[in-house]
Amino acid sequence: MIDNAMKTQLKDYFKSLDDSISLVVKASENAKQDELLEMLDQVASCSEKIDVVKDNELVDVPSFSIKKNNEETGISFCGIPGGHEFNSFILAILNSAGFGKMPDEEIKERIVALKGNINLNTYVTLSCPNCADVVQSLNLFAALNPAISHTMIDGALVIEQAKALNVEAVPTVFSGKDIIRVGKTDLLHLLEILEENFK
Questions:
Q1: pTM of the full predicted structure?
Q2: Count of structural domains, the chain
Q3: Range(s) of the domain holding residue 189
Q4: 62, 30 in Cβ contact below 8 A?
């Protein structure tokens, strides 16, 4: 799934990791579970700081979350983050450890200032570059602010759920049961939306 060239690149990215990163996988009888486990094992093999931990909680769709030093980061993936979302996954590991693309200090302060129990879900398709931009921004918010949690959801694996929620385009971002953004946007606009509700 991950070729040798990519593994070499990942090893280079992960050299800076000081914290222990756990990829916590929920149990699933879904046919794609083995594919998810294989991908996570291959990523974890690129750094002694990363391990894969199996959770006994049973879910319908292959899912995992990221912990840093055994603490929740608030970042989860429902589905297998391939395509553009593979970059989101790798950046989530780096952001959790304080590396990767980071905003300037003023923007960081605004993200950290958000208050409340902020649970965000983004429905995506793996071929959508605009989805990855949104996922990466919201994962970064979760990495910086413990009040925020964010889950990427592969809409192709939860078709009936997406229909029930009236997801008609991607990316679609939910706060709880409320749609707060549909379509292409950037980190600053997402921050402004959250500031309207959680400052």
A1: 0.97
A2: 1
A3: 4-198
A4: yes
Q: Which residue has the tokens 């990855």?
A: 132
Q: In whole angstroms, what is the distance from residue 116 CA to residue 61 CA?
A: 28
Give residue for tokens 């070729």: 3
Convert the pLDDT of each residue in 44-73 to its tens digit: 999 999 999 999 999 999 999 999 999 999
Rounded CA separation 64/7 (Å): 21
178: closest CA among 158, 156, 159, 193?
Answer: 193
Q: Which ranges constitute the DSSP H helices of 72-186?
A: 84-96, 105-112, 129-144, 159-164
- Find all residues with CB under 8 Å of 90, minimum gap 6, and list them: 10, 13, 43
Query: What CATH code is carried by the domain that includes residue 194?
Result: 3.40.30.80
CA-to-CA distance for 64 and 89, rounded, in angstroms? 11
What would the pLDDT profile of 114-133 be if each residue is shown by its tens digit?
999 999 999 999 999 999 99
The secondary element (H helix, E strand) that includes residue 51 is strand 50-59
Token reading at 185: 């946007």
Strand order, beta sheet including 21-28: 50-59, 21-28, 63-68, 71-78, 148-154, 118-124, 172-175, 178-182
